[in-house]
Amino acid sequence: MKSGDLARMAGVSVRALRHYHAIGILPEPPRHENGYRDYDASSLLRVLRIRQLASLGFSLEQIGPLLDALDEGRGEPDAETSSRGAGPRDTDLVLDELDAHLAEQIRLLEAQRTAIARLRADRISPDVPDRAAGALDALAGLASRLPEPGFLDWMFTSADRLAMGIAVHLYSDGDLAEMERVFRAIPERGLMGEYVAASREVEALPADASPEARDHATRRCAAFLDRVLDCFSAENWLRPEAEYERVLASVAKQGYNEAQKDVSERVFRLLAERLASRERVKGSSTLDPDATS
Fold this sequence. Notes:
The chain has about 290 residues and is an all-alpha fold. Helices cover about 70% and strands about 0% of the residues.
C-alpha cells in the first residue's frame, strides 16, 4: 500500500509517517521502481501501535524503545502474539511508569491552575510568581496609605525597581513572608510618618555628607526599624549571604551616592546585630527558666 493509504487507515498524516521514519520508530519499507514506498500490513500495525501508545501519553522518544522491549518480550510480532500482548508483569511495569508520569503531570497542571487563579484574584501580572502575592499586596497597601501620594514612586529609583523585580522571583518564601510582615506593620502600627521621614533623610544626603549627618540618618533609620524588629526573621539575616542577595545589594546601590551607601550598610549591620542579640536573649531564656520568672 502507498503512504497515503496507510496514513488514511491508521488515522495519521503522511507527514507524521515521514517523521516516524526520521526518528527511527517506523522502519522505511522498500520502494517500487517508480520511487513510491510500498508499505505492508506490518507497517500498518506498527503505526497503529504508535498511535495507541501516544494516546496514553507516551512521547515519541519513549515509544521506539518501548515497542522494541514489548516485541522482545513477546517475540517477533505476528497476528497471534500481537493480539495476546506482552506478559502481565512487563505490561504492569510499563503502565506503572506511565501512570506515575501522568500523575506528576496532573499535579503540575493543578499547581499551575492554582497559580493562575491566585494571579487573577490578586490582579498580579503573569510574569510575577504567585507566591509573591502577599508581599506585593502589602506593598500596594502601604503605598495607598502613605501621607504623601506617590511617595514610593518618587522614592524608588529605577535600580530599586529592578532589584524588587528580581527579588520577587529569587527571594525564598521566608524572605517574602518577612517583606509582607514589615510592609503591613508600618501602617498598622501608625509608623507612616516615621517611615517617610527616615526615607527622606537618607534620600537627601549629599555624597559628601558629614559624619554627623550620616550618624543622624543611621540612628533615625535604626530607631524606625526597632519599631518593626519583631517582623524580621533572624534566620534570614544571620545566615551566610546568598549569591542572589549579593546581586540585589549591588543593583540597589546603583542609585545611591557614597553617603547613602554608607548609611545603608550601617543600618543593615545594626539590624543584624539587634537580631543576633534578640536570639541570644531568647536562647538564654530557654536555658534558664528563672530568667523569665
